[in-house]
Each structure stands twice: as C-alpha cells, then as structure tokens.
Amino acid sequence: MLVLTRKQNQSIVINNDIVLKIVELGDGSVKIGIDAPKNIPIHRLEVYEEIQKENQRAAEVSKELNLGEIGK
Question: What pTM, to 2 d.p., does this model score?
C-alpha cells in the first residue's frame, strides 16, 4: 500500500486520468473529491463489498436454477 500525505486542496493523480483531491479536512474525517472517467466505477468500500456479496448470491441462485433445469 502506498501512503501519501496531502493537505487540503492538494491532489493525487492515478493512471493519468483519475484525480483525487483533498477537499476538506474535519474532526476525524477527510472529504475527498474524485475526478475519473465515467466508465470507471467508484464506490465506498462497504458499498463495493455489498455489491460483491449480492453478485455472488445471484450467481449461486442462477447456478442452482440451471442445475435444476438440467435434471428435468
């Protein structure tokens, strides 16, 4: 993991087309602005993890349904 120190209004560039900007520093929190191409999904980690869990559940149900149809 790369760890960088930035101050308010400073930025980090990733892969030439993603810019992370420190917008605001608060008590125990940081507000980050993200400028990225629209085709790059951006989620908070907890949302991303829920999406992955839901995708896994959907894949399991689909597999079960397909296996059920084969047995008919």
Answer: 0.73
